[in-house]
Amino acid sequence: MLLEGKKGLVLNVTNKRSIGWAIADLANREGALVGLGAQNERLLENATELVEGRERFETVTIDFAFEEQFASLREQVETKVGKLDFIVHSAAYAPREALENRFIETTREQFEIAMNASVYSLFRTCRELEPLLNDDASIVALTYLGSTRAMKNYNVMGVCKAALEASVRYLALDLGERGIRVNAVSPGPIRTAAASGISGLKDMIRHVGDTAPLKRPYGQEEAAGAAVYFLSDLSKGITGQILFVDSGYSVVAM
User: Considering the entire predicted model, what is its pTM?
Assistant: First the structure.
């Protein structure tokens, strides 16, 4: 019960295969009350089904594309959850064309959509909910190795993840005076609904499996374990860091 008595948010969850759901599920099993986020009413039905029959779950909605919804999120959180001990940012999106075409062909509109959904949504959420964060709270974002290495078919999302990781460091600086930690978990390629938009995903997973030092599979469960570590008091001395969960692939040169 690493998170017994804690309350927090996981934003957003699409289905049972999402990393966000794996984190929310484990955090709840470790004793936390979890506010589970969904982008809209249709996806809220999925979230509601996931938590059916479970205790210590609430549901909220926010579509990060609309500025007015951040204030609505705060109202929902105040009513359903109250003060927060953690926030998990599990949101990223880029138009399919921006992933399929060459990076150099990314349009201004595609770039703005991807950055808004994948990066701005993190610190805008933190700004809106800062008054609800308890001292010593924890914020966790999800990133990927494409932030520092050029990867075919990842394109503008790699640029977004680089900006996301920089945002983690600057948020850590802003919020550190209150003991609030901001970190990121960087899983290797995992079969999720979001990742399905990346061409060659199966080949990426196979390559990592063949190359990584640990010759065993990893997935949502391992990513969730790393996130819950950051949410727990075990990580009180850590902020502004990126934790790789990829069986060690990120340390291998060739």
Answer: 0.94
19 is an annotated ligand-binding site residue: yes
Mean pLDDT estimate for the chain: 95
18 is in an annotated binding site: yes
Q: How far is CA 36 from CA 23, 46, 52, 127, in A?
A: 10, 11, 12, 19
**β partners of residue 181:** 138
Contact between 173 and 180 under an 8 Å Cβ cutoff? The reply is no
Instruction: Give the residue from 18, 43, 11, 15 showing the smallest Cα distance to 191.
Output: 18
- Which residues, 6 or more positions from 249, have their beta carbon under 8 angstroms from its beta carbon? 145, 188, 208, 211, 212, 213
Beta-carbon count within 10 A of 44 CB:
18
Give dist(CA 240, CA 14) in Å, integer: 27
Instruction: Provide CB contacts within 8 A for 243, sequence distance 6+.
Output: 183, 184, 185, 186, 226, 229, 230
Residues known to be catalytic:
144, 154
The rounded Cα 39 to chain-centroid distance in angstroms is 14
Cα–Cα distance for residue pair 128/151, rounded to 1 Å? 33
Is residue 161 annotated as involved in ligand binding? yes
Q: Which domains does the chain have, with CATH numbers?
A: 7-245 (3.40.50.720)
Concatenated DSSP letters of 55-69: SSEEEEE--TT-THH
Model pLDDT, residue 254: 77
Longest dimension (CA), the chain: 52
Beta strands in the chain (DSSP E): 7-11, 33-38, 57-61, 84-89, 133-142, 181-187, 242-245
pLDDT tier, 202 (very low <50, low <70, confident <90, very high otherwise): confident
Q: How far is residue 189's CA from residue 203's CA, in Å, rounded to a whole number?
A: 10
